[in-house]
Every structure is written in C-alpha cells, then in structure tokens.
C-alpha cells in the first residue's frame, strides 16, 4: 500500500514538474515542455499521469484526458469545467468499483464530456452528473434516488455522456440529477438495480437522451421530476423489467413532472427475469406514467410487454394530466394501453390519437378519449390482471455486455467542445422504429 502511494505521488509530482506531460494533438508522444498560455493539451494515462484521477486533477479547461486500455480501480471526480475524459477503447478502458465505491465517474463541473469507456461494479452509479453537493456525497434515498433535504436546487449546466458502457451498478448506470443542458447518447446501460439511464430533478431540463441501448435493468430509462425540453428519442429499451417511466416523486424536488417528449423509441419485451428487482416491483410494462403531465409519446414501437404496453396512473396525490399518446404502434402486449387509478387521485385530459393498437383498459378509450379532449375531461380508470413477477437477481449477476460501438477516432480526435445548450430534436422528423429492430442487438438510428 505504501509503495503504491509513493508511486502515485511520485508520478503526480513528475507530471506537475513537467507541466502535465502534455501534447497538443492526438498522435505521437508527449510534449514535456512548458504549456503555452491558453493551450489545450492531452494528458495520457498512464504515460503522463499514473491514474485517471491524477490526470483529471492536472487538467485545465479545454484539455483532453486520454486513457489507455486497462482496468482502473478508482472513483473519478471531475471538478474542472470543459474537460474531456475519453477512453482509447470503449470495452478495454474499464473503471471498476469492485463494489467498494459509490460512483465510477462524478461530473461536478460544466461543459464536461465523458466518452468511450466502461464503468461497472459501483454500489450506486456508473456515471453521475450533478450540481448537487448532497448527491456527490452519495447518500441514496429510500427507494433509489437522492433525497437532498433542505439543500437548494443548484443545476450543473452543460454536459455530454457519449459512447459509455455502464453495467452492473447498484442504482443507476448513467444518472443526470439536478443537471441541465446536456446529452446522453450512443451509450449502453445494463444491470442497473434501479434504472439504466436516469434523469431527475431538472426544470427546464433541456436534456436529450438519444440512440442509447438499455437492457437487463430494473427500468431501462427513468425520468423523475424531469420537466421542460426533456427529450427521449430513438432509444432501444428492450429486455428490462420495465422499459421506460416518467413520473413525479416527492423524494426529489421540482414536482410535478411535466413536458417530456418520448419519440421514436423501441420499447419491447420488458419482462426479462434475469434482472435486478426495483423497489417498486414493476415487471412486464413497456412505458409507465406515474403522476407525470403534459408529456407527448410519439411514434414509439411498443411490443411484447406481457403486463401492458403503456400505463397511466397517479401517485397518491399527484394526478397525470394532459398526456398525449400519438402515432404509436402496439403489438403482443398483455394490454396495449391501460389507465388505472387505485387511489382517489385521478387524471384529466389524457388522450390518444392515430395509434395502432388492439386492446385498452378501460375498453374503447381510443374512441372515447380521442385527442383533442378538454383539459378537464376526467380520465377513465380500469383494471386488468397482471402476470406475477419473478424474483429479481443481484445486479452483480447480470450478464456481461458484448462489445459496443466505439467513439470515432478516439485516440486522434481532440477534446470535445460541449455546447452551452444542446440542439433539441425536431420530433416531427423522428420515424417509427422498423420491425427489423426487434432483432437482437439492432439499434435505433435517428438522423
């Protein structure tokens, strides 16, 4: 232990002495000379710094930390704005928490990009992006999220998580909490004991979740109290216990959830038994709305979910109002669309239009609740028999992922400039996913 600590300390001192052992481009060796004022450099791990954390501590805004293949047993916290952390190989650069640390990567500064690496075996999150000091401290809430108590809401603004594999983490694979103006894209999440990808406590979010694959999680994607310019577009959410949820929850601030757009996603076969069991126990559901309002669900393919394809319900005291289900294709679900309100709280103004579906509960709501409906129109409630849910497995036992697509030119591209706000999708151009995407491993493509 002492020898290792001395080696790390000596490495960091050497890098500091040589002004970060930096290079100005993606190829060739390291430039050990003085950093010109304002220059952006590449810090290589382990060539220029012995650990990822050591390299990140040396980085200045605009720098690239480029990590060579290897297994890194550390938790990386990025506190410097506009740093890019990138693996040279997505599958071979592995940040492994060994179930001894809460988070693999914590992004606590704006404009940071995390790219082309794998994070696994953390007790809480693979990648956490947050403006909340309480969340960084890492005390989970009662059923997964973070209860930040009296802490004022502080947003981290501008982030990018791209080409990241997050697998077998105790809460969330990729978790954006109290963060705005960001993108989660081209990533893969499995084995999330709560959900694979999660966006929570933002208003307005201005967050885009696109072209990701989430499988073998308790929930593929979850958006809690995530409101306003919140886009979930062109993702493959297949083989979880629940595919996607958008909900309101008192455990987080900024109630109620409203104003998300869920478009062009493949949401299929979400009754996989070899998955972790979420605290709420959902199973066999494609999309669930729990106390969320004003959301749009456009041209999703929702098929093969044994309980229900699309469920709307209420929390005990927060109704779901004004959700629009438009142009979706349903097939082979237990119930295609089910609206149910077991508590006194009931929704208003929810409607359907132009969907291809077979069964609803209550019956005939495709006709009786056809869009547009008055905002005060009471949403009817029905019941159906749900199949029993099998017991879950430990998140550590979820099957390991196969190779995933690489970040283009990972070792030669410079640092990624993350925009102050992302370009928001033109949802009118997002297509219905093809049936060919039901094949194993197929990915949704969004232009």
UniProtKB/TrEMBL annotation:
Residue intervals of the Periplasmic copper-binding protein NosD beta helix domain: 167-337
Keyword terms: Repeat, Signal
Signal sequence, renumbered to the chain: 1-20
Pfam (any one): NosD
Keyword Repeat among record annotations: yes
Region (Disordered): 423-447
Alphabetized SMART domains for the sequence: PbH1
InterPro entries cross-referenced by the UniProt entry: NosD_dom, PbH1, Pectin_lyas_fold, Pectin_lyase_fold/virulence, SCF-Subunits/Alg-Epimerases
Listed SUPFAM superfamilies: Pectin lyase-like (SSF51126)
Protein name: Nitrous oxidase accessory protein NosD, contains tandem CASH domains
Species name: Actinacidiphila yanglinensis
